Write a sequence for this structure.
């Protein structure tokens, strides 16, 4: 039985997937299994994976068209490792990611159910650094994770599988690691390694599995999140600001400008920043750029 299970889901990404697989095979920690859940519409991905002849890779093919969470959960349910982590097919781990996280989590008490590290974003086309995600929250962070997406970023997470099975799991039809980690943190303590151990790539030409209906999906996430934690937000009404800002932007992108304007006003009642003041303009520019790109 492997100590760590890495789950990757993929669809028609045979040109990106090799980087993901290679970054796992280059790990200094080798006691792992890599579960790849494929819902491609062609057979190139299967041929690619089989060409590695690696017994640590467990490949499963599922029908395309299911909710993305079905694929994540199918991979998680098959995990045999003591610890569980994830890696998107277009991203990569740095070589010491698994070793450092394994050494760290096994040094912590059992009530720490999850740890995370830091990640940096890079442009797929140019290789240039874009931004970093470097949160620094540890212990009981149940309230902190509800206001903004602090403890998030699926490739950075390492769960005790027993805790993940009890408190985690990807929620049906909500493809969002913020929801997963926020729910998990209501029950377990967390800790982190202050190191960048994951590289995330953006601006590549391949479709994302969550791209279809993405604005409605994101609206659904934020509205559901606000309802799930209504008691917290009723006690701390101004902490809804980030959710309202995103709802303003996503409703604008979906073409529902009345709802967008309503959430914009609600956002500004909670908190006034330059970014929030410019939310309609930011959304307009973003939508214009996306529409030009489709022509």
């Amino acid at each position: 039985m492997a100590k760590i299970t890495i789950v990757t889901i993929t669809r028609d990404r045979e040109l990106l997937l090799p980087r993901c697989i290679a970054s796992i095979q280059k790990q200094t920690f080798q006691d792992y299994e890599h579960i790849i859940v494929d819902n491609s519409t062609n057979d190139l991905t299967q041929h690619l994976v089989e060409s590695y002849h690696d017994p640590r890779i467990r490949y499963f093919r599922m029908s395309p068209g299911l909710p993305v969470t079905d694929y994540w959960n199918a991979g998680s349910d098959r995990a045999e490792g003591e610890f569980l982590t994830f890696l998107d097919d277009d991203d990569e781990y740095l070589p010491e990611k698994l070793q450092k996280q394994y050494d760290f989590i096994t040094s912590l008490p059992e009530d720490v159910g999850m740890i995370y590290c830091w990640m940096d974003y890079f442009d797929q086309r140019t290789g240039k650094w874009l931004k970093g995600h470097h949160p620094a929250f540890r212990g009981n962070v149940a309230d902190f994770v509800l206001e903004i997406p602090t403890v998030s970023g699926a490739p950075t997470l390492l769960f005790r599988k027993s805790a993940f099975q009890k408190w985690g799991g990807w929620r049906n039809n909500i493809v969002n690691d913020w929801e997963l980690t926020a729910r998990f943190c209501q029950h377990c303590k967390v800790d982190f390694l202050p190191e960048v151990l994951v590289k995330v790539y953006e601006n590549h030409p391949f479709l994302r599995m969550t791209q279809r209906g993405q604005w409605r999906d994101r609206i659904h996430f934020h509205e559901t999140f606000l309802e799930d934690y209504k008691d917290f937000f009723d006690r701390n009404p101004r902490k809804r600001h980030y959710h309202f800002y995103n709802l303003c932007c996503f409703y604008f992108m979906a073409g529902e400008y009345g709802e967008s304007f309503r959430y914009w006003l609600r956002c500004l009642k909670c908190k006034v920043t330059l970014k929030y003041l410019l939310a309609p303009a930011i959304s307009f520019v973003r939508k214009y750029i996306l529409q030009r790109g489709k022509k």
Notes: The chain has a mean pLDDT of 93. The chain has 13 helices and nine strands.
